[in-house]
Design goal:
There is one protein chain. By secondary structure, this protein is of the alpha/beta class. It has eleven helices and nine strands. The strands form two sheets. It has a seven-stranded mixed beta sheet with strand order 5-4-3-6-7-9-8, with helices on both faces. A two-stranded parallel ribbon has the order 1-2.
Length: 284
């Protein structure tokens, strides 16, 4: 039986980073002792014509990426346990396959990404209508906000997204979310200042020549204080990555992650956070 032709994908800049994320998840998912089961990611990598290993290496950061993703999955699963008919909005969804990993058969899912990426998703990862749909616009746009119905609970996720925005854009976006969606929760990740500075200097590269795009926004204790000062932001808390496999990620890193200072340095994984908005909207 002839296999269908693979889809040639040519991306650059921030958009290309979604291929790195996909490749690392698939590399981990192929392992018999994987910390994340993600058969969809494996299928996607096999269906895309792109020099994954040449550009990104052999997937050596697969477990690191998978544990980050798994923490997002756990937050979504916890939300759906309390709000089985709730809505999840995945900002900057890229080629994430989270819907298939956490779907409870009732969730309403809205994926948001720039039009070119949504078009790509439509070719290789079509929506599962009517509960799952994608919208092509910037996460900074209020266009997608008009499609949100928080009546049965609302969870917003921003996985591998906010660090690519300018600090002022991040603050403005969160201020808008806090005002428009009182009572909602935002789960997001970031990078520490040293990591941001290396990307801005063009010093985050792989042996295959892939260079991480600039990440202007970083998060540390001072930045969390600024976020907490945004009207109607009720809480900004840290999330710990799940326990992984092996001596480092299974034993040493969970121990080190008990220290807020270690978590902020990002030495055991990128910082993960949960933000809750107050139940009283602020005025425009």
């Amino acid at each position: 039986m002839t296999e269908p032709p693979r889809l040639k994908v040519d991306l650059s800049g921030v958009s290309e980073s979604l291929l790195w994320n996909l490749y690392q998840r698939a590399a981990e998912a192929r392992r018999p002792d994987a910390v994340l089961r993600d058969p969809k990611a494996v299928e996607l990598v096999e269906s895309i014509d792109y020099p994954f290993e040449e550009k990104f290496g052999k997937g050596g950061l697969g477990q690191w990426q998978a544990l980050r993703v798994l923490r997002f999955d756990q937050e979504v699963a916890s939300f759906l346990a309390d709000h089985p008919d709730g809505q999840v909005v995945a900002l900057g969804e890229g080629l994430e396959t989270q819907f298939w990993r956490v779907d409870n058969g009732r969730v309403r899912w809205l994926g948001v990404d720039v039009p070119d990426i949504v078009q790509l998703r439509g070719q290789i990862l079509p929506d599962q209508a009517p509960r799952q749909r994608s919208l092509g616009c910037s996460a900074l746009s209020q266009e997608w906000m008009e499609q949100v119905d928080p009546a049965h609970g609302l969870l917003l996720t921003a996985q591998g997204l906010l660090m690519y925005f300018q600090p002022g854009e991040v603050h403005e976006l969160i201020a808008t979310l806090a005002r428009r969606f009182p009572g909602a929760t935002l789960v997001f990740d970031g990078v520490p200042p040293w990591f941001s500075q290396r990307t801005l200097a063009g010093k985050m590269t792989t042996s295959g020549g892939y260079q991480s795009p600039p990440m202007p926004w970083a998060i540390d204790a001072a930045e969390k204080k600024r976020l907490r000062a945004i009207p109607n932001v009720a809480e900004v808390g840290d999330l710990l990555p799940p326990r992984g496999r092996g001596l480092l990620r299974g034993h040493l890193y969970p121990l080190l992650n008990r220290s807020a200072a270690v978590r902020e340095m990002g030495l055991t994984g990128l910082p993960l956070h949960r933000m809750r908005f107050g139940h009283t909207p602020t005025s425009d």
